[in-house]
Amino acid sequence: MSVVQPLLDLQEIDGRIRDLQQEIRDIPQRKAQEQERLNGAREALARAQAELKNAQLRVNEAELEVKARRDKIQALKQNQVLLKTNKEFQMYNLEIAKIEGEIESYESRQIAAMDDVIPVKHRVAEAQAKLEEDQTVVDGYTAELDERLAVVQNELAATEAERAEAAKKVTPQFMLYYERLRTKRWPVVVSIGADCVCNGCHLVQPPSVGQMVRRNQGIVACQMCGRILFMNQ
Length: 233
Ligand SMILES: [Zn+2]
Fold this sequence. Notes:
The protein has a two-stranded parallel ribbon. It folds into 2 domains: 14-166, Helix Hairpins (Orthogonal Bundle); 172-230, no CATH class. By secondary structure, it is an all-alpha fold. It contains 5 helices and 2 strands; from the N terminus they run ααααβαβ. The protein binds zinc ion. Zinc ion (ZN) is lined by residues 198, 200-201, 203, 222, 224-225, 227.
């Protein structure tokens, strides 16, 4: 058995810890990506709502035009009773008839505008339903991610406890070297084959290094990357 076997055991646990930590880091990003999936549906709804607003605006505009002309006719009729000559009276009638013609035109415009509102209202309802549907899917997936996060956090806590136990079996000076290197290189402990190639950086080690690893008496570091070398014997 290799003299660095306790370190290999520790490294195996550290590998699991790294994966769990990575997953914990990734979850918020995955949740954000899920939320982004709603953007398309949100934009479609906003477009349909803007369209509806415009369509309703056209209805209101036509309505205001009609009202303004009705008021005008009423004012003309009020003045008409005060007129002295028949000619003036006839002129007022002509004016009123002209305005009534305009009212008719605005009323048909208003009806057409109201007809336009109906399909747009359908589009708004459809876009609303689509967004709600997408929201349900995203909420479901987000809840799954939250559940997963809780599971991973528990697993991490258990694995860290496992690591504390495994660390007790490692010689302190081995531990010191391993911990120092762990922040810079991963994995820290790598095998070398009969060809004496470091499996971390692929540098061929001088024969003396190969011999020291084979002797299996302490930490032997790669000449290039500093990783701890071991040989499967
Ligand atoms: Zn190396």
